[in-house]
Each structure stands twice: as C-alpha cells, then as structure tokens.
Design brief:
By secondary structure, the protein is of the alpha/beta class. It has one domain: Metallo-beta-lactamase, Chain A, CATH 3.60.15. The model has no long low-confidence stretch (mean pLDDT 95). It is built from six helices and 13 strands. It starts with 6 loop residues before the first strand and ends with a strand. 18% of the residues lie in helices and 29% in strands.
Amino acid sequence: MKGTQNFEIMIVFDNNALSGFKSGWGFGAIIVNNYSNNIILFDTGSGFPKLAYNLNKFNIEIEDIRKIIISHTHMDHAGGLMSLITMNPNIELYLAHSKKDYLSNQIPSDVKVYGIKDITKIDKKIYCSKELGTGIPEISLFLKSEKGIVIITGCAHPGLENIIENAKDLGKIRAVLGGFHGFDKYFALEGIDLIAPCHCTSKTKKIRKNFPNNFVEIKAGSTLIF
C-alpha cells in the first residue's frame, strides 16, 4: 500500500496462527508505517525460527526492519531479539528505561538502544507509552491514526486500564490489540471501536461477550489496517 496514508499491522507471533503460519507462545507485530515508509517490529516472540518464518510469509525482509520495540523483557516477547539484531545490527531498539542497561549489556555495541520513561515519539505518528509498572516494567505502542489512537500491548502487566489512560494524552482511543493478561476492568474498553485481545489474555470470552460488535479475533497471520 505504498503511498497510502495508514498503518498496516501484521501479527507475526502469537499462541494461535492462521493456516500457513506458525504459532508459538508469545507475541510480535509488524507495523508498516505508510506515513514514513518505515517498518517497525513490536516484540519478537519466544523464538527466532518461527518469527522469521512468519515474517517471510508476510514478505517482510529482516534487513528492512528499522526499529524494534520490546514491551518487556520476558522471553515470550524478547526471545527472538538477539538473532534478529545479529542479522540486522542497524536496527534502533526501544525498551523500558529501567531495563535499558539489562539488554544493553547483551547486544552488539553498534545497536542504538533507547530507554523510554515518558510518552516518546519514535516515528511519524508513532509513540511509545511511558514506562508503567514496577515489578514488571512495560511499554506499549500508540499509533496516531486519522480516526484515533491505536494501542498495541505486549502483556499489559501494569493494567490495560492504565495503558489506555496514558494513551488518552494523545487523543481518543480507536483500537486496542495485543496481550491483555488478566484484565477485567471492562469499563475501560467502553467507546473503543476495535478490541482485539490475543496471546496471554485470560478473559477473552468475557471480553467478546461484553463487546460483541467491537471484538476482533487475531492470531499469527492476521492483518489490520488503520
């Protein structure tokens, strides 16, 4: 969709997969930012082979990925990172500020690493959330689409309701997708057009029941366009 002003989100790692894609415990999503013509990866799943397979199915070349955001350093979200940056050391890496030194000591010195404390613009119309949580520090991704903010979460350990509140600093929330973990503050989803939980979400059936007209099922191989 070159020349089109939008975001294409491709789910490249999830516990479940569409036919022709591989599943694995974890999460990963490619964002094709057609505002900047950059390709961004949010989380890398639990292992590189399945990540690489699914990237290839989407015709995404590893060397074309410009930036990686790691929501948190659990292996189901960062397991494919080291192999990926070995193949493409020109990538910019973003993670929670309190985890910057933890990963910086493990990756090649020529990889640019940025620790995120507050809402930070990392690409045209794309922002990292502020670092949330103490026991498990986590960041999320906010895409500023024409019709509102699209939130992508890793596991939402700090509480999805808190991530949504943080995103409201940028505007109206249009969509939220990714891992919701044990989220049950359903009032926080009121007024959101698209709700797409996956990976670690434990109350998917309840969310679907509460928001039948807004719920969208996603898994590895799914594509969303905003």
